[in-house]
Amino acid sequence: MSLDFMLPVAPARVRALVLPIGQIKRDRFSSFVERLNEEHVVYLRDISADGRPNRNMFSPLAFPHGAMFYDLLTHVPPPSHLALAPFELFREPLALIAIADGHELENVAFSKRQSANGHAPTLAERNIRTLYQELEELRDTYPNILTHQVLVFDFEPHVDNTIPIPEGIKTIPPVENSKRTTIKTIMCDISSLLLAEMTTLAKSFEGMTSIDSPGQAPTRPGLNGNSWASDDANPAGRRNSQFAVSTLTRSASTSGAPDKSQARMSMPVPFKSPPFGSGNSTPSGRPTTPVRSGLSHPPTTFDDMTSANGSNTDIVSSENGAISRPGSAGGSKGSNSDKISVQGFGPGGLNERWRNKGRGRVTILVGSLYLQAGRWIDALKDLIEGATIAKSINDHLWHGKALELITICLLLLGWIGVEFQVPTICLPANEKSISSISKGPTAEEGDPNQPKHLRHLQTILPDLLERIIGLYSRISGEQLPPLPLSESVIRFCSLLTALHLCEGTLNKKSLESIVSGKWPAKPLNSSPRLTISPPRSQIVTLLFKAFPSSAPELLTTVDRAVVLSGIASVLGSLGFHRKKGLVMRELVSVLIGGLVEARTRGAAEVGIHPAAGLVALNAANGHGNGAGALELGEGDIEQGIDAFLGLLCKTYGVVSFDDAVRKSSDEPHGISDTDASVISRIQRQSSARQFGISNVKLNILRACINFSEALPDFNGVLKYSSDLLRTAGCGVAPGPRREDAASIITRDEQVRLVTNISKTSTLSQRLGLGHLAAEYWDEFLVRGITLDPLPPTRTPTPHSKSVLPGVTTSRTSQDVNPFIYNPFIRASDKAAVERTLVSGEAATFRITLQNPYEIDVDIESIKLDAEGAAFESSNTSTVIGPYRTQTIKLSGTPKSEGSLKITGAVVKVRGCRERRFPIFPQPWAPDTETKIKGIGLAALEQNKKLPFPGPALKTDSIGLSAISAQPVVVIKSTSLFQSSVMILEGERQVFSVTLQNLSQSTPADLLLFSFQDSTLGPLQTALTSRDATPAELYEYELILARKQALRLRKMEDSKRYIAPGGTSTFEFEILGKPGLTNGTIQVDYAYLGVPPQEIKDKFYTRQVCLDLTITVNASVELARMDVLPIQGEVPKPIWSRLGAKDTIEETSLSEDHCLLLLDLRNAWPSDMQVCLRADDDTMIKEHILPGNTNRVVFPVPRVYIDDPHASIPALNPSRQRQFVVSSSKITPEIERGNREAFWYREKILEKLAGTWKTLSGPAREGTIELRGIRLAPRMIEAVKIDEVGIEISVENTPATDSPPSSPSSPTQQQQQLKDGNKMSNAVFVDEFAQVRVTVTNRTSEPIHPTLRLMPSLRHRPLGVALDFTRKFAWNGTLQQALPVLDARSSVEVVLGAVPLCRGEFEISASVEETVLWTGEGGRGKEGSGGDGNGVGGVGGGIGGRRERSDTEIMMDAVLGAKERRIWHSRRPCFVDVRDRV
Questions:
Q1: Which residues contact 660 (CB under 8 A, 6 or more apart)?
Q2: Please, which residues bridge with residue 171 across strands?
Q3: The pTM is what?
Q4: Range 1402-1413 burial, b when 16+ CB lie within 10 A, else e
Q5: How far apart are CA 300 and CA 317, in angstroms?
Q6: Per residue in 563-609, pLDDT tens?
Q7: What is the largest CA-CA distance in the chain?
Q8: pLDDT digits (tens, 9 = 90+) for 990-999
Q9: How far apart are CA 448 and CA 8, in angstroms?
């Protein structure tokens, strides 16, 4: 059952005052009260009846179905409430329950004085006796309370020593030892005593002849509870708003003034201005003029109180003699009534009307006691009788009270299921209405399952309640004060609301809501409910009659707040949240005024300035949140005030930090700041920002701030100040020149709010309340976090395991092939490098913060928030200027290896809670709703449940990876002066570099060296050129591969190690090249800790670089060159001088060599000695003076190339294919010429080498760059050896017996070749001679040769030289087809000839391919002959070939179709014909 004092059945409750006694803590006292509240409904069937015959008037046995409802109060009711008794008897406590803590019995003595009952053996027993003494003092202090009881909770009796428990004290075991009925039994025992003592109270009421109404001066002393608390025992506990005159006899003193301490202060006047009427029913006793103001002097004699003209004065005086407030007169009496009250009641002294009024009021009071005692049937009887009497004498207040109590009786009877009949006194006075109502509604008009008596009560209930309000509000001699009238209206509206929420039907569900206060879980919305009676409009109209007047003297601040709270509660149950918000806004204004007054009064009591408020007092008393200002419990602020103000702000759509009301301000860290929570919070705030009127929201928040300052509630000041800034803000993440993020309040107000937050937070920390803090008002504080790149020397670069030397077969050593992918020299993935950190080494982050307000934001601390591996962030402070975006730097250090993610920043703004802010890098603004599809708070709540309609809001994070600790290597020293060197072209120099490991714990066990120089860039650019020819690409790649400017000298891999804190020296070699101006030695190092084969996936290296400045000067330059054939024979001494072997004949040397002419220039200012060397051990040395150019003639071997048209190779593996096609569009002839020049040039360069050395000055030596040689077609002809060799010789003797066309052996071929090289042959005229022609096939394929001999006259012009038919005769034909000539074989052709005259002849020859060799011919046997037509031929072991492949077809497309070739003899055979002597 609810403990709401505004429930409709509140007058049926029995108030019990619960007080602490002895030594007890606040939290334990509260828990004990909660245990009692669990059993605050006591059924009469569980109560034992009192055995005394004079105490059985309210015996529970008479109506066992009834129940008693207890209202446990932990404070004495205010005087304004006690003054309403006995008209509202439920306001006065009838029982006192003192609670003691059994755990404290043996801990501390409750009283230092000795017990009056003697010495107690134990501390617990002495404390028990002390509790009994204090119980007696409570009885003396509160004599009007009917029963007094002490409950000792958590009492554990000793088994050995039993403590006697005095009467009036009951013990309760701890919860774990208690039974389910323990507390229930205690409450039943208290109820039994209370029912017995209520008999005495009822008898005392029955003995009275008159009962005063509220606001009326009492006619008898002690009637209205003036002695409820004893003045002697506790003067401060007296009812300050009610003082009864102890005796109205004339004073014995000369002044005759009554005792001022016994004067009674009446209640304020009701809504209307006329004064309260007299309690007398005599017409002559009613006043005709307003009450005198309380500002006049109080009466001092009885004559002053009974004026002759019938006007009355207030017999009112405060306890200290102060004058009452104007308009607070509690009613006046006529002179006749005064005389009656003084002289007593004698025979004939009272008329019948007076007696009936007293009897009727007493009957109503007894009925009220029966109602509280649970005897609802008996209460109904007495109340009907009292109502009838009051109606007959026009006693409107008591008539209305009787009807109200009758209504409660009927509801309680319906609640327990007892059938009843609506009394006639409750029916309207109209006969027609009575007849129609008495019949009741037909079955079709309501629920057929509803009992008839409940349906009857449901029908008359709205009219009955309005009649009661009309009786309370009727203008007469007696008027009800505003407080009970407003509370009655609220209770009636609560009753009608429960009926309305249950679809207008009075049934079990609605009765349960009325009695227990359990409302339906589903709240109402603003949609109309026109078919339900009573309608909400009628309830609201009636409810606002309880709205208090603005006159401050009519109601106290507390009572006014209570009335407004009740109105707001009913409005909330009906679904009128806007009206509820208006009432709550008025309630805040009332509370602010009351708090300011209490603040001033409290400051005066403690002797401090009122401006200081109660801060010091609250802190001294342990209240940090304003609980002391309203005399609230420590938890009342969190459970009541926060919820109240939060509901008010929610009603108006205030943009609060979170919709959910925080359970306790002491637990701020329970708020979730995850990405999802923050995004959801932003979306809810955006929805709330578009709801309602902004100016109204700001006014509400200002009122909440004023209210919190008046308490003072530090947490409230912080919360609502930040909410005001949040509501006034835009709630967007502005982009560049897009969204307007300005606040809607002035800059001065922003400064004032921030200053208020800062001061309040500082004060709370000074008072030990460091947990109090505001919530920062901008969720988009962090707009970006970036990681600054690490220094190049400390940047870890990731590499795959496969790139380690020794892991794969492609990389078996640490020396790097320039054409194999080198991951250490190429730029790695920048994103991956920038997101890699090293354990134990700090990295720098940049945090971008925004401040859309016109104030400075003072950030006390900010640090990074990371997930994953252990990470430590530095902490810094800063101030963000107004309306700007600001970037600050922070450092962070990973403590362990692994992946981690930077998800935001933890920021502590001055005065605000330290919390995490996610990263919102993208601009964001909610969509403005153009069409309003719903209104009211229900629409706002519905929008929050639906998906957010605006743009998606995404957070950002930085994914990082932390690797294990790595060494730090630096270059300690180098043998080069200032890292610079001067070198000549072709010269090689060696220098050393010393590396040092700065790390004291981590060695460097992996060292990889890479090099860069100024020549690599142009080479790489040239390699990527699409216009470069294959020969040029080969040249570029050759320079990259074999002429590296920098390289590491050979050393063992085991020496590539640097111990922690140690050093290591490495030697490097530099080569002078044209265009070399600078170079870089790059050292990639790491600590692996395991063999390379055991690395899992990847490893990381760092780099340290040494930049070199290189100056390359010219040494020996090749100015020009030429190649010439050797004509004739070179003497052997010349060959010997060049270093040729003596065994080789002169003729052979001359035919196998050609002359290479080189113009060499000495560009260095020092004498140079040049040495040229060929591969056949020939060598020549030349001395060149500075600046001179010398021509060097050097014989070089001629070259035979099997396939001079082969594709130009590629040294780069990525370009190695079957063939390379020039990208330029050239003819096949040019392509063949280019390839032929390339291959012959390469062959010459392979056989030739040149070096130089200085003869004066510093000793230097190097190589001559001969790759500048370029061969023209003429030079190629001088260098090349033809594919088919033709040797011609003439012999006088006849040929051998071998066949003329049989192939010769290699030995014979070589001998014939030597013979053919002779310059001339001598024959004689008219003698037979043989012309021997040797044809040699040097190719790898057979050919079909056709031999042509061309004799001619020597030293004759061409036309005459061929006229030799009568001068030279031959046997056969000069042209003949030879058999197939196998690869790398030769054949001899012998032709008989006879010279016919003397002279000199020349015999030349040429060989032409008859047909192209395709491999399609038949395979012959070795030595077999052919027909000479190229079809058969000699096989020589050569078989048929397969069909032409696609490669050959493509080669034909590049080099042109393969054509028949022709070869000519390089030298003719000279024949000297002589006469034989």
A1: none
A2: 152
A3: 0.61
A4: bbbbbbbbbeeb
A5: 11
A6: 888 898 888 888 888 888 888 888 888 887 777 777 677 666 655 55
A7: 212
A8: 999 999 999 9
A9: 26
